[in-house]
Every structure is written in structure tokens, then in C-alpha cells.
Amino acid sequence: MNRFSRRLRVWGAVAVGLTSVGAVGATAPPASAATAVYSEDFSGGLGTFTASGSVRAGAYGARLSGSLVSGPSMTSAPIDLTGYGDVTVSYTRAASGLDLGESFTVAYSVDGGSFTALESARTATGAASFRLPASVDGRGLRLRFSLDADSILETLTVDDVLVEATGDGDPTDPPPGSLPPVDDVTEPGPYAVTVDRSAGPGDDGWLVYPTNAGRNGVDHPILVWGPGAGSAPADYEDMLRQWASHGFVVYSEVSSSSGDYMIDALDWLEEQNADSSSLLYQDLDTSEVAFGGHSRGSIGTFDVADEPRLETTIHVAGGSFDGNGPDSLRNPALYIGGDEDFATANMERDYTNTGVPVWFNVLDGTDHIYATRNGRHIITAWLRWHLADEEFRRTEDFLSSACTFCGLGEVRYKNW
Q1: Parallel, antiparallel, or unpaired: how do β-strands 49-52 and 35-40 relate?
Q2: The model's pTM
Q3: E strand or H helix at 244, and its extent?
Q4: Theoretical Cys-Cys bridge with 179: which of 110, 160, 247, 262, CB 3.0 to 4.6 Å?
């Protein structure tokens, strides 16, 4: 199966230099039929790992340094193994300077339970690989690396973390989301599209939606889109159609720096969903909503990003002028800029000031005007991840060093 989004790097690994092993044993690299479910080389930071104590990332990987106060550790977000079995965890590690009685530990947890050690040692260098027990299959897996040492000169360096597994049937088939699956987000989705150019609270917006909305019982997620200053929905028609073809109901009207019109639009869409005379009656998933926009549309999105009905926000070539835009963010955010865009400096500052999970791509060869068009497929995948529950996109398309869109420009992400 030829999937555009399946571009994870796969490494081989061999267990060496183990001092002690927990409930599972070292194993040879998995067979070639295995799928890379998760990978992290820490080149963009800690990725999905959260850290306590002294932990930093760089070209060397992730480095834990000892402390007299509390031992450092880093723990991954849950790795979804739905549909997968024969799970193998591989990584490289190098312990340096540890004294007698000090050690590092690598452990795993299933579905939020207690951690089980894979290895615990004072000295180890090189690659390690472990086959996990069948009790892990199909569950939620967390990995934790920790160091028990009392000097900052005593370190554990971790790199090239990889989780591989085999799937039920075709191992390349991802777990399903709430919309019909697609092989390639750069192509139109499975839905024909209808455009209503006199929709919304004031009958002056565009409603772009799947023609056969509700087919096969599908409830369609919602995107409210704000155009840039001096532009209108017509300037984004091909992009609005693309997102609607993938199953999203998209509303857009001339934007303002205030995002109140987005709130009004969402209220109107909820009314359509409840109105038996509406073409979208009971066809909308009002629990899966995104606000986003280009330039001034991004500014308006920041203005109302604390709206409690939102799942995510999207900001294209639209950094806030004072750097305070991210203060209102409550949910994961997508930032897209361009290396030839005058607004990218503001977006850089916003990225620094962002406290929620954020993914940022500064696209190569892209100016202010073309940022949305050049980033439209990124937005499609982001919406399919955050609004349509296609969790496999987390690692494959975004949060890994070999992510689908990593070759389009400079990628950064944090707080995951």
C-alpha cells in the first residue's frame, strides 16, 4: 500500500552491554514486516517526551544530568498500539561517570499503570532492543528514561528511540478515525463539495461542505476560517474545497482582528445542526471544532482562542504584533510561516511565548501570500489528526524527525 504519510525512518538495533534486564528480555531486531509506530531522535527537542529535572536535547540526543536534589527523568506521551502486536522498543544510550550505587533505568508502562524496568545499569553504551510481552499489544504504551546520580557531570544520553510492531492483517493500515480514510492528504478527499456563497449569520459568508453530508452516519467536524486583510473567501476557494472534500464543514467570511465573527459563525453552525429544515441537520460534530486563518485571520483566531468549544487553532503567516497572542491559547496550535514572509519574525516570537503544544513549520520558498496555499496539505493532515481522531498522524506526519512534512521547511515543536 503506497501511503504518502508513511515515511517514518526505521533503524535496526542490537542489545549490547546490559547489566540487568526487567520483565522482558533483549531481542534481535524485529522482522522486516514490522511497522515503525513511533520514533524520536530529539533533533527538534524532546518531542512527545516531558521531562523533570535536568534534561536537554541536541544533536547528541536527549541528555539527563545528575542532581543532588532530584534525579532527572523523561517520559513519553502515550503511544497508541491499537491494532498492533509483537511490539519491540529500541534505542541507543550512553551512561557516563556514574559511581557505584548509581544507575539509570529504562522502563515502560501500559495504559497508565505502574512502570516495569527494561534495563537498569550503571554502565552501558550503544544500542538496545527489547521485545515487549503480549500484554502490551493493542494498548497505550509509555516509555520512561531516568537517572539516579548526584553530579551534573554524571549523565545518561538517549537517542534514536523506536517502537516497532506488526499490525492485524496489513500492518500499514492505520487505526481508523471518524472520517473515511485517505491514502494521500495532498489529493482531494472522498467527498464531492457544495459551496453556498451567501451563508452565515449575515448571509455574507461562504459555507463549503460535503455534498452528501451525513452519508453513512458520519458527523462532520467544523473549521471556521479567516482570510487575510484585503481578501475574501473567494481567494481561498481551492483550499476551502480541499478541506471540505476530506469531510470538514468549512465556514469563511471577511475577517477582522477581532475574532467575534468566528464565535458568531460557530453559534450559527450549531443552529444549523439543530434546525430540521437545514441541509446540515444533525450532520455536524459540534464537539470537533477548529478556528484558523491567514494573516489577519490568524490574529482574529488568537483573539478568541480561549473559546471552550475549540479543539485546536491554526495560524498561517499571522504572528501577533505584541507577542501576547499565545496567551489565549488553550489547545494544540499549528503555526505555518514562510522563509520569505515578513510576518515570520512575529510568528517566531509567538512560538517562543507559546505554552500549549505547538508545531511550527517555516516553509521554504514561501512568502506571505502563498503561505496558506503551500501549507494547505499540512492543514488537511492537522485537521484529520485533531478533529477526525487519526492519531497515527501524530508521529508519522508531525512529531518525529522523519515526519511527512519535515522536508518542506524548518520544523520545530514543543510541549507535547
Answers
A1: unpaired
A2: 0.65
A3: helix 237-245
A4: 247
- C-alpha distances in angstroms, 208 versus 197, 223, 254, 374, 409? 8, 10, 15, 20, 29
Specify the 3-state DSSP secondary structure of 216.
helix
Element housing 197 (H / E): strand 193-199
Sequence-distant (≥ 6) Cβ neighbours of residue 393 within 8 angstroms: 5, 381, 382, 384, 385
Q: How much is the pLDDT for 26?
A: 41
For residues 177 and 5, give the distance between their C-alpha atoms in angstroms, rounded to a whole number.
15
What residues have CB less than 8 Å from 277, skipping those under 6 apart? Answer: none
Residue 150 phi/psi, 5° resolution? Answer: -110, 10
Query: What average pLDDT does the segment 325-339 reach?
Result: 97
Is the predicted pLDDT of residue 16 greater than 50, yes or no?
A: no
pLDDT in tens, 238-264: 999 999 999 999 999 999 999 999 999
With vertex at residue 401, the alpha carbon angle to CA 1 and CA 71, rounded to the nearest 5 degrees, is 130
